[in-house]
Amino acid sequence: MLKPTLTLAALALSSLALGQAVKGMDVTVTSGGKAYRSYLAAPASATPKPAVILLHSFRGLEQGYRDLVDELAAAGFVTLALGWQTFEQEPSDGTVKTLVEDGLKYLGTRRDVNMNAVGLTGFCAGGRYTMLLLPQMKQFRAGVAWYGFPDQGGTAAKPQAPSALIGQLTAPLLIIHGTRDQASPIAGIYAYAQKLDAANKVFKLSVYQGEPHGFLLADSRIADTFASRDARRDMVNYFRESLR
């Protein structure tokens, strides 16, 4: 069902500046009878390691997300970025959930993955999916949601809002957001955090003053800014503490 496919764009790279040697490649993950174009990077050693599934933003699997996958792999995580927009710009929540489930099955075929230590991260729409799926999918031991949409739902394609599922959340969640986010205003994130706190859920909220929506990237690449660097460090440290 799940078939990794090397393409001419497959890479074998050494991330000396980041730490461990990394092998990155384009892969396909089959879900619902369709092959989703995705990207995977892993530390070169074959010993079992924690893993992360990454869900890109509404703007697609940009180069910056591929670079971030390499960065996470260099930090010791087998990382799979799922190309959830391969066939539709805005698939249903059910379609994305099934793809993430199949992404987990794909990771489960690899000998270098510790399936008891898998995390989920996402950005923009992917941040909403992280908030939405983390309570539902107990295989994930931690999540990091970048500038997500906790109250988006109530449509045929998106029937549930993440904030409605707080009671089901058992994994720790890191929320990363900027105060100048116009797409997902910070007031909604503060309200979401208050609900998490009232429900005694384990979470951390990292807020970056003056940062807009999507501040990880600039022109489709990882932004060379304090906020981008610091938030990435925060994510890596959160996963290191949570995925043991």
Automatic annotation (TrEMBL):
Residues 37-81, 93-241 form the Dienelactone hydrolase domain. It holds the Pfam family DLH. One of its GO terms (molecular function) is hydrolase activity. It comes from the Bacteria. Keywords: Signal. InterPro entries: AB_hydrolase_fold, Dienelactn_hydro, Dienelactone_hydrolase-like. Residues 1-19 form the signal peptide. The keyword Signal applies. This is Dienelactone hydrolase domain-containing protein. The lineage of its organism: Bacteria, Thermotogati, Deinococcota, Deinococci, Deinococcales.
